[in-house]
Amino acid sequence: MEPLVSIRNLTVDFDLGRRVSRALRGVDLTIGRGEAVGLVGESGCGKSITWLGILGLLSSRAKVHGEAWLDGRNLVGAPVSELERVRGKRIALIFQDPSSSLNPVHRIGRQLTEALKLHRGLSGTDAKAEALRLLDRVGIPAARQRVNDYPHQLSGGMNQRVMIAMALAGEPDLLIADEPTTALDATIQAQILDLLREIREDSNMAMVLISHDLGVVAENTDRVAVMYAGRIVEQAPRERLFDRPLHPYTRGLLNALPDIEGPRKALTAIPGSVPEPWNHPAGCPFAPRCDHAHSVCHSELPALARRDGHHLAACLRADDMLSRMRDDLSEAEPARSYA
Amino acid sequence: MSPLLQANDLACHFSVRRGGGFPTKTVPLKAVDGVSFSLAPGRTLALVGESGCGKSTTAKAVLGLTPATGGTVRFKGEDLPKEGTRAWQRLRRDMQLVFQDPLAALDRRLPIGRQIEEPLHIHGTADKTERRATVARIMEAIGLKPHQAASYPHELSGGQRQRAVLARALVLEPSLLVLDEPISALDVSIQAQVINLLVELQERLGVAYLFISHDLKVVRQISHEVAVMYLGRIVEHGDPETIFTAPAHPYTRALVSAIPTIRTTTRERIILSGDPPNPIDTPSGCPFHPRCTHAIDRCRIVRPELAPTTDGRTVACHLAHAPDVKAVA
Lengths: 339, 329
Known about the structure:
A: eight-stranded mixed beta sheet, 12 strands, B: eight-stranded mixed beta sheet, 34% helix, globular
């Protein structure tokens, strides 16, 4: 089946005057209809920039190249008028901090009806009725009274529900949820993720869930892509990625994660830190921090290649890892230690 | 062993303006409302809970940075002197504070070596070479290279910045370190570095931690004892393994079940309805009862007190102490 969105070799450069900083170094990713894809990685790895770049939401200093196909049209370099028909209508976004995404001086009802007018051409009582339905849909109690509230009168969780209602106003095919629960408390996070799941089940909307929290991604997506230094380094169906990660960076991330169950053991931190965009190593960007790096890793850039079924990894040593993993598997059940 | 730090029925009430009108009405906001705990030297007590539950206010009150409106804080067996007095300043040498965002905690215009040295200056180590030697020693202990003393905060990575903040807090060799969400602003791979460092430093220096966090996974990794707070009160207190594997209070149970995990788990997820209530008008009886699925009539009227259970923890819940608790859990 034709994917909903397919991104090919997307790059983003920021012109900093004295130098050009490359934030995105060639991203390839497809999103199927109704699919939930997780995008994980540390801050600065390019997970948000990917989508902001495609939708033309970066400043004029950013130069976006590559392709992003939606319904046979390339969004990269498309005129603003065309992007405006996509933003919010076909591809909607929600961000981390709902209170800074909502307009503080307008009532939430008005902000919702504005979105409905823009995307669906509704006005007057129709728009009001639809706004009420949406607020009700996202689980805001007493929606009839709440439409007249300002964002500051609502809690963080309620504001995020309003943001989701606004995103649903255009009945999008794809929702980009950029750290949607990071600013929220644990019990509220569970509520919001539950709501997103329920909405997706009802509407067959695809979702890209951007998060630094591997637990959140593991529980809410079908497929996961791991990003490092502006590239996707590993991509696999969810269970596969968390049970049998191939890329040393993914393994490192999983080993660095404390757990709430099981035996308490010392965490294995990844040494060093992410390379600066202007000081990018030749070869594999992870090689300086990698335990498995050979000399070739420092000179040759690995491509994101198919390793095993739907499992993709950008690592020159992935085949070694895979064969070692198969040996391990034949000996015992899959071990939870990835080192 | 006598406790290093002891809080007894600690309360911090603020009066806040409510609504418009003239004359303005003020109402009490009970940020911390009767919190008691004790912390032994070289141990870690974690205060966990959602935003607004009073965990940071408790931490500040313990240091005397926020005046307590009730109860007492005793540090090394003595009452905490009034903020700003000489005696308090002397005591603060022995109790230090670390915040969430290292970039905000550091001065952008000073090299970190100077910043790490500053507490020595304030607390009167006159000799310059001695100060420099102490700084070099602590930087090495914390995993910063000597040449980095000349670096400015923006030249360091997130993990290194948090190390610099820790070095500054530890340079006076305090016996208590209050850590307010020290790793929440860091990336996953850096978090592990800092968690391991904190554990290692405690073993080496024997410093006690009062660790404030909302992240239960991190808390489990680092603490000897956990106190779960809800609306300014401790609702469950005990050993982390006991609390996280078999939470007794319905709020703790929801909190633990809400943790997203990469494991394929059979744990049931409890999704609480609604938001935590406003600390200005806390519900009558048990403050958690409006969100609790097990609440009985008594919960709406009588506030449960923190009381010990048979397995060594303390819980503030009528049902946890009822004989038919198993049926509820």
